[in-house]
């Protein structure tokens, strides 16, 4: 892995986090549930992608 790729990925992650923080509603309960649901959807998508990749490699 190149250092520039790592730095680029880190920057994209930081920007994504800032955008999610801005988009989420300002009151704490709704922010927690909104971000939690988004994280759950992303986790499910990554799990699904990993399953697909592992089936292709077999």
Describe this structure in words.
- The longest helix is centred in the C-terminal third of the chain and has 30 residues, at 28-57.
- It is built from two helices and no strands.
- The model has no long low-confidence stretch (mean pLDDT 80).
- The chain is flat.
- The chain is mostly helical and 58 residues long.
Structural class: mainly alpha
Q: Would you identify the regions where 5 or more consecutive residues have pLDDT less than 50? A: none
Query: Please, what is the average pLDDT?
Result: 80
- In one word, what is the shape? flat
Cα gyration radius (Å): 15 Å
The biggest sheet, with number of strands, parallel, antiparallel or mixed sense and barrel status, is:
none
**Quaternary arrangement of the chains shown?**
single chain
Counted by DSSP, the helix tally is 2
From N to C, what is the helix and strand string?
Answer: HH
Number of strands: 0
Strand content: under 5%
The span between the termini is 25 Å
Helix content: over 70%
């Amino acid at each position: 892995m190149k250092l520039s790729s790592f730095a680029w990925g880190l920057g994209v992650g930081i920007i994504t986090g800032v955008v999610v923080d801005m988009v989420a509603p300002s009151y704490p309960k709704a922010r927690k549930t909104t971000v939690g649901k988004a994280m759950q959807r992303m986790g499910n998508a990554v799990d699904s992608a990993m399953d697909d990749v592992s089936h292709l490699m077999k």
